[in-house]
Design brief:
There is one protein chain. The chain has 144 residues and is of the alpha/beta class. The protein has one domain: Rossmann fold. A 5-stranded parallel β-sheet has the order 2-1-3-4-5, sandwiched between helices. Helix 3 packs parallel to helix 4. The relative contact order is 0.20. Bound molecules: 1,3,4-trihydroxy-5-OXO-cyclohexanecarboxylic acid. 1,3,4-trihydroxy-5-OXO-cyclohexanecarboxylic acid binds next to loops.
Length: 144
């Protein structure tokens, strides 16, 4: 099965960006960990990052056409994007929202997500491990 893992704005800076909040793991580290887990679970991983909302929308649409599941860390667009909400709703594939940090322990503007209502579930606060947990969760729902 094919799984898209999409990452939103500023996540390309992981490793050097606010390490106290996001850890020292880079996005490349997360990608290689996801590929390893994907191999174990027999999942084909398509891993991407963009700082551009419309590109993320295009990729969610693409995932809806070709993939069996979606893992997305929409980053700041989590809290702003109706377009990403609509794209996930329309894609009609099981979607897991991931955040490295525990957004509920942070500023109030991070407490609302446009993505959660269209996600199967949400994993936040476990750093890069959240991506692994999301892959494991997805593997149980796409292969009943
Ligand atoms: C984030 C949390 C968001 O609030 C923030 O805008 C990010 C990263 C996380 O992974 O913890 O860019 O999605």
């Amino acid at each position: 099965a094919s799984i898209y893992i999409l990452n939103g704005p500023n996540l390309n800076r992981l490793g050097t960006r606010e390490p106290a909040t996001y850890g020292k793991t880079t996005l490349a580290d997360i990608e290689s960990m996801c590929r390893d887990v994907g191999e174990d679970l027999d999942l084909d991983i398509e891993f991407r990052q963009s700082n551009v909302e419309g590109i993320l929308v295009d990729w969610i649409q693409e995932a809806g056409d070709v993939a069996q599941g979606l893992i997305i860390n929409p980053a700041a667009y989590t809290h702003t994007s109706v377009a990403i909400h609509d794209a996930i709703r329309t894609a009609e594939i099981p979607t897991i929202e991931v955040h490295l940090s525990n957004v509920f322990a942070r500023e109030a503007f991070r407490h609302h997500s446009y993505v959660s209502p269209v996600a199967l579930g949400v994993i936040c606060g476990f750093g890069a491990t959240g991506y692994r947990l999301a892959l494991e969760a997805l593997s149980t729902v796409i292969r009943p």
